[in-house]
From TrEMBL:
Lineage, opening ranks: Bacteria, Pseudomonadati, Pseudomonadota, Betaproteobacteria, Burkholderiales
Residue intervals of the HTH luxR-type domain: 142-207
Record's protein name: Response regulator transcription factor
Naturally occurring in which organism (per UniProt): Variovorax humicola
InterPro entries named in the record: CheY-like_superfamily, NreC/VraR/RcsB-like_REC, Sig_transdc_resp-reg_C-effctor, Sig_transdc_resp-reg_receiver, Tscrpt_reg_LuxR_C, WalR-like
CDD domains in alphabetical order: LuxR_C_like, REC_NarL-like
Alphabetized PANTHER family for the sequence: RESPONSE REGULATOR UVRY, TWO-COMPONENT RESPONSE REGULATOR
Positions of modified residues (4-aspartylphosphate): 54
Domain Response regulatory, chain residue ranges per copy: 3-119
Amino acid sequence: MIHVVLCDDHAVVRRGIRDTLSEAVDIKVTGEAGGYAELRELLRTTPCDVLLLDLSMPGRGGLEVLTGLTESDSPVKVLVVSMFPVDQYAIRCLRAGAKGYVSKAGDPDELIAATRTVAQGRKYVTAEVAQMLADSVARPALETPHAALSERELQTLMKIASGQRLSDIAEELMLSPKTVSVYRTRVMEKLGLPTNAALTVYAIRNNLI
C-alpha cells in the first residue's frame, strides 16, 4: 500500500485529489495539511511514502518546504502538484529534490500514475518536461534570467505582472508589505528592469502569466 499525504491550502483541491486517488486500490491518503506547520507535525506521526505538495501556499511556500525536506534527508518522496506553469517550475522543483511534477489541470489518471512511479523511487516527468531537461543539459548557458530568482521573488514577479497590488500580495502570502517591496526591488535588480510595467512586459514575453 502506498501511503500518501496531501499538502495544499485549499480544502476543495485536497478533496478532489483525495477522490481521484481513492480510485486506486493500492493508494491510501493517510493525512492532509493546509500548510507547513500542519505538515511538519503530520510527517512526525503519520505514515507517508509520497507527499503531494502544492507550491503556492501562505507562509512557507512549497519550494521552501521541498528544499527543507531534501536538506534534512527526509525519506519522503515529493510529487509536486501545482497550477504554476510547467515550463517555469518543473525543472526548478526537480533540481530542488522533487521526484515529479504534474499539473492540477492534468488528467486524473496521470496523477495516479505519477504517484505510483514516485513511490517506486523513480522520477515522473511528462514528455514536455523531459524535453526541457534535455534542452537545459544541451544548452545550459541559455537559461533565462528569472531562473536565478528565489521562489518568493518569482511569485512576486508573477503577481505584480498580473496586476496585484503589493498590499494584496502581502496578504495572500502572509508577509508584510515591506517584505514584498524588498522582493520587488530584488527582482528589478536581478532582471535589470526599472518599473512594474517593465516587469509585466518581461513576464508576458517569458510566458510567466
